[in-house]
Amino acid sequence: MEPTRNSHATLVDLLDRVLDKGLVINADIIISLAGVPLIGVNLRAALAGMETMLEYGLMKEWDAHTRAWESERRKKKVEPIRKAQIAR
Amino acid sequence: MSLETQHRAKTKVALATEAIVEEEGKYVYCVADAREDMSLGKIGIEGHKVHTIPHKDICAVVHSCPAQLYQSDDQEVVKAWVRMHQKVVDAAWERWDTVLPLSFDTIIRGEAEKSAEQNVKDWLKQEYKEFKRRIEKVRGKAEYGVQVFWEPKVIAQSLTSTSPQIRRLDEEIKTKPKGLAYMYRQRLENLMKHEMETKADEYFKDFYGRIRKYTDDIRVEKTKRAEPGLQMIMNLSCLVYRDRYTELGEELEKINRRRGFAVRFTGPWPPYSFVGGA
Question: Between B69, B227, B230, which is nearest A31 by CB?
Fold first, then answer.
């Protein structure tokens, strides 16, 4: 199989890398703010799984009902995180 | 001009200069294996002009900005920033072959007596040996993501037909009265859970061994929640020689073809997972 980097299908994979990894600067000359990782957590919570899987046909056998249910559940899960961030 | 006004004016100027110096920053995209002092044009986040800051035969790829983090509650905005970050790293990667990428939103600030640019230079100078070591580690290689999923239902079905213990319990339930059958079902569920975990472990070791052959290095990442009906049993970041990814792809295809299994293969990524830490 061929690797893919289609920008829509692999957004979560990109975020996993760009938000969490890479070269670390161990010095007080960098600016950092507690709470920044929240951007990452929030984004990932909203994006995790579903939309990327669709592209791979992993979900083709599921009925629309299952997808709707999953989407509802996801909305519920994501909401508190967004509220918390707006409150901040 | 009265003495007082003069004094006030001076203070104002001093404050303004200080403020500018303190607020200056350099957003760092990556460190590249290149002896370059040049501009890459306005390809940065929000159209910023990207340029290099050299030290010996390496350079930092940066843009100038206020010493403030990029922050937004709007996910679309953050996603766009992350994509732009990646585009710059990609451009540097393509141009100079070997880069050490930094994560999003790393900004080096200036200080009262030292510019942000000087701080970047000093940072490169101080870490030079280490950066060279890491550059050699990832030279000629790229990172690939490998995620293996299984369908627990399919795996459970095959366990029912292959594990004598499970099959026996399954048969016994049918002959038991209701109350007892319930207890047996509990036992069956526990046993099944245990067997599934053992199986997942076996598969992990098997697949890891196959994948290892085609990689220079592997990071085992946390498995993530998958779609209902699927479970991620393996999440790897693989450092692979650029000319060996097709072989890895062939091996993954074998796993992907198995009944009840699916593989995601992503990349090539700049080696994000292999440049951090010690």
Answer: B69
The span from the CA of B154 to the CA of B167, in Å, is 15
Whole-number pLDDT of residue A3: 94
Reduced to 3 states, what is the DSSP secondary structure of residue B162? helix
| Cβ–Cβ contact A58 with B under 8 A | yes
Comparing CA positions, the residue from B269, B270, B222 lying closest to residue A4 is: B269
Question: Which of A3, A17, A85 minimises the CB distance to B245?
Answer: A3
CA-CA-CA-CA torsion sign (B91, B270, A14, B246): positive
- Return the H-helix or E-strand segment holding A16: helix A11-20
State how far residue B190 is from chain A, nearest Cα, in angstroms: 26
Neighboring chain A residues of B277 at a CB cutoff of 8 Å:
24
Residue pair B78/A14 in contact by the 8 Å Cβ criterion = no
Q: Is A4 on the interface with B (CB under 8 A)?
A: yes
Closest partner CB to B253 (pick from A1, A16, A24): A1
**pLDDT tens string A31-88:** 754 434 444 444 544 444 444 444 444 434 444 444 455 455 444 443 333 333 333 3
Domain boundary among B102, B118, B138: B138
Q: Which of B138, B158, B184 is the last residue of a domain?
A: B138
Q: Which residue, among A1, A26, A79, would best test binding to B if mutated, counting the most B CBs under 10 Å from its CB?
A: A1
User: Does the CB of A77 have a partner CB in chain B at under 8 Å?
Assistant: no
Amino acid at B249: G
List pLDDT tens digits, range B247-266: 999 999 999 999 999 999 99
Assess whether B19 and B133 both reside in one domain: yes
* Domain that includes residue B163, residue range: 141-274
Using CA atoms, how far apart are residues A71 and A84, in angstroms rounded to an integer?
Answer: 21
Give me the total of CB pairs closer than 8 Å, taking one residue from chain A and one from chain B. Answer: 141
Q: How many domains does chain B have?
A: 2
Based on the fold, state whether residues B152 and B244 are members of the same structural domain: yes
Cα(B252)–Cα(A57) distance, integer angstroms: 16
